[in-house]
Structure formats: C-alpha cells, structure tokens
Amino acid sequence: MAFVSSWKGLRFDASAPTTWRPAVATAHARKHASLLSPRAWSVSRSRRSFVVCAVSDQASGVGQVVPLVDLRGKRALITGIANQRSIAYGIAQQLRRAGAELGVTYLPVNERAESKVSKLVEPLGASFLHPCDVQSRSDLEGLFETVKQKWGGLDLLVHCLAFANREDLEGNFSETSRNGFSVALSVSTYSLIEMCGLAKPLFRPGGSVVTLSYLGAERVVPNYNIMGVAKAGLECSVRYLAAELGPACGVRVNGISAGPIRTLASSAIGGITTMIRNVEQNAPLRRTVTQEEVGKTAAFLLSDAASGITGQILYVDSGYVIMGSPTFESPA
User: Fold this and answer.
1) CA dist 215 to 97, 153, 204, Å?
2) What Cα–Cα distance (Å) separates residue 322 from each residue in 218, 222, 313, 316, 319?
3) Which residues are within 8 A (CB) of 56 and not within 5 positions of it... i.e. 6 or more apart?
4) Which residues make beta-bridge pairs with 209?
5) Is the CB of residue 239 less than 8 Å from the CB of residue 196?
6) Based on the domain organization, do 168 and 30 belong to the same domain?
7) Are 252 and 275 found together in one domain?
8) Is residue 332 part of a domain?
9) 199 found inside a domain
10) What confidence category does residue 262 fall into, taking pLDDT thresholds of 50, 70 and 90?
C-alpha cells in the first residue's frame, strides 16, 4: 500500500535514526494516515515528493526498508570476466551493489591474465580469484574445492562462458570443422552442465544459476553459425538443469538472451558492428542494451525477487525479439 503526498504536506521527525518517520500535518495526510494505522511507515524520497509506504511490523520491523533485490549474505561465483567490457563484469558489479560476496574465475591464458582480472575486480572486494579453464576437469574440480574451503557452500552461480574458433564465425555454416563444433559446444554449452553438477552438493536452498544466451539460438543470424547451435544447446540445458536442481536442492536456473554488445568475445563474430546497428535501427527502443542493464536483470533473476522463475530465457534486447520485419518508413 502506498500513496504519493507533497513533501510540504508532511513533517518529519529528525530524531528518527534510520528512516524518515512522518508526522501528520494536514487533513489530507491525516486521512491517509488512518488507512495505514496500526502499521509502520516507511518513506522514500524522490525529487518533488515522498512515496509513503506501509510496512508490516511483523514482516519487516518498524521503519525498516528492505530492497527488492537483496543479495546480502549471498555468495556468488562469477565466471567469464576478461576485461571491463565483459558482460560478466557488469553482472559482478550489480551483484556486489546488491550486497553479494563474490568469487571470481579467470582464464589462465598467460601470466598477465590473473593480474588484469585481479586489478579489475579489486574494487568489488572479491573473496578469491581462481584460475579456471572449463575444458580441464581438474581446473573445475579445483575451483569448487576452493568454493567449499572458502565458503562451505554456494548460493549463486553466474555462467558467462562462450567460445568458437574465429573461422567458424563467418562464411558457410556447412564448412564448420569437426574440431570447431566440438570446441564450441564444450566451452559454451557443456561447461554449464559440468559446473552445475560440481556445484550441486554445495548449493544452498534458494540458490540460483544464470547464464547468457543470444537470439541466434533460435533464429538465423548471419555469421553466428556454430555459436547459434551452442546457444540453442545452452538454452535447452537451462530447462533440463532447472527440472533437476529444483526438486533436488531448491535451486533455480535461468538464462538471459542479451542484445549484441561490443565485447572481446563479440568482436570475433563477423559483422558484429552491422548486427548492433541493425538493433539500433529496428528495436522498439531504437538502441542496443548495456552491461548495466544485463547486470541488473541478472541480479533480479538471482535474487528472491524472482523466486518463482526457473527454466526461463529472459530477453534483454530493447525489444528486438518481438519484431517480425525491419522497420519501414511510411510512404509520404
């Protein structure tokens, strides 16, 4: 229950230590105050008005305001951060802002990789930084052993891993190599299945998993090629994992199908700039999306605010998915 009242119509008790406690100053405010009694008041401030909400004493405590997306006390394992433009980094930032404690992995391709990611996530106060090549079973086992030793359990798993050979992301799809197919499916699809299997005994009830997909999983996108097949497998895996982990340990599994964003990974796709321009010209919002928007969606899906959502793919693409054809200008 909430109403908006002019800030001039309310007086506030300056002695309130944590939240504004309004005192009724006008007949209009007194009228609405009677509707709230005997429940507690909580007031949030906007530019010109205060939104006054009734908060149940029993549910939240007098004067206590709990954010809708609240990850305080949650421990989240983040995979796929390569640089500041990584979608995984945008997700990590939003999870930290929501109060989650983070553990981060990096791909040990060279000596600089650890230092680069370490500096990047330092402001986020990550509890640990662990090398992990998902094509190595020993790396994955070592990662989850670290999770067990550091935290004793796991609440949230963020899977932002995808790879295909550059030559398989352009040209004719039928020319995809056998090795290229195997690598793309192993890194981009099977890694989610394997990580969930290793995390299963560590998951706490109410846990959640989020992975990243793209529209190419269900529609033909020029040059996306083998990655479209990998993402289709990933989305199917989301449903099967949700069906398994829900009854087994109360864990939800969902995916985000994000619009094209300029990242290190997307730069390998032939024509990525054209893909982005196409979204900007035809999506209902006439723009592509940002790291921050995908990060906020991930934080929502991982939080209790999405406690009834599992096995789903949520589109964050400025509405591009709803369009049936390119936008045409009306004839004069």
Assistant:
1) 28, 33, 31
2) 13, 18, 14, 11, 6
3) 39, 40
4) 157, 253
5) no
6) no
7) yes
8) no
9) yes
10) low
> Average pLDDT, whole number, for the chain?
82
Q: Which two tokens stand for residue 17?
A: 């230590």
214 part of the active site: yes
Whether the pLDDT of residue 247 is over 70: the answer is: yes
DSSP state string for 205-263: EEEEEEEEE-GGGTS--TTTTHHHHHHHHHHHHHHHHHHHHHHHHS-EEEEEEEPP---
Place of tokens 């009677």: 34
In the DSSP assignment, the letter for residue 285 is T
User: 89, 106, 190, 214: which is the annotated catalytic residue?
Assistant: 214
More confident residue, 33 or 252: 252
CATH number at residue 259: 3.40.50.720
* Residues 228, 214: Cα–Cα separation, whole Å: 8
Question: Residues 89, 106, 190, 224: which is the catalytic one?
Answer: 224
- Of the candidates 295, 255, 266, 315, the residue with the CA atom closest to the CA atom of residue 69: 295
- Within-domain flag for 192: yes
Q: Are 69 and 98 in contact (CB under 8 A)?
A: yes
| pLDDT at residue 214 greater than cutoff 50 | yes
pLDDT digits (tens, 9 = 90+) for 20-29: 334 444 444 4
What is the span of the domain harbouring residue 22?
2-60
Look up residue 19 and give its DSSP letter: S
Please report whether residue 65 resides in a domain.
no
String of b and e for 103-128 (b: at least 16 CB within 10 Å)?
bbbbbeeeeeebeebeebbeebebbe
> What confidence score (pLDDT) does residue 135 get?
95
Q: Kindly give the pairing relationship between strand 313-316 and strand 252-258.
A: parallel
Residues 91 and 55 in one domain: no
Does pLDDT of 19 surpass 60?
A: no
pLDDT of residue 106: 94
Q: What is the pTM of this model?
A: 0.78
Say yes or no: 87 and 124 in one domain: yes
Domain count, the chain: 2
